Known about the structure:
It holds the Pfam family His_Phos_1. The protein is built from eight helices and eight strands; from the N terminus they run βαααβαβαββαβαββα. The relative contact order is 0.19. It is of the alpha/beta class. Strands 3-2-6-1-7-8 form a six-stranded mixed beta sheet, sandwiched between helices.
Amino acid sequence: MAAEDDTTIYLARHGDRYDYAHEDVWAARAEELGFDARDPPLSALGHAQSRELAAKLLELTGGRAAAVLASPYLRVIQTAQPFAHLVGLPIELEEGLAEVSHAPGSIPTAAQRFPYLPEVALGRPFGVPVVATTTDARTCLPSELYPIDYFRRTVRLADFLPRAYAGRTVVCFSHAASVALVALLSARGVREVGKFAPCGIFKLVGRAGGGPWRVELHGGDNSGHVSANSPTTHAWGFAESRWPIEEHWATVLGELARTGA
């Protein structure tokens, strides 16, 4: 049970992706129509999962949330929509929650999303903007270098969220790689923290006095509130990565220890 001065973060992953469920069709239409295939919407199943997720989050939060934050990717905004409708809050886009190897400028802005997704808040600066250190070969735009830039961004996000929402509850919608945020706040290994299921929910509670955050709900299992899953969008964690994850994670934690940031 959270105390009145605790800070609570609900972290939810997006639902089933349309491109994973219809890979050949999506790729062919992207080539035919000339759009970027890397910002797909939800599938029909993903929309159904998101409605179930919204109902569960409403139950967990009692409808009391200071803000609804979402990665600026379409599938995540769509996942956040049903909950935003239930609680009557706008969806505030947060680049700190964006997909790994994010290239700023590669996806539509909040203003460009608004005509189709009017729940999106306008004029909000990112609390944690992406710091690009390489170039995305597909877009020729500045991009993060995976995974170390993503881990550095996670450190900035773990600093921003408790300061911005101290003593309150914030609901965040993101991607599977956000298990890194759970690992950082709870002082666990980035592989140890496990996987993130589609529309899974992590509940993280931080005490005002500091110390590791409590993980009161684990997002690796969505079976308590999601009635169907697809093998195409499955639970994922850094244990599945072929990169030397522990080495990069240790580097970033070492940087954090030296700077005290």
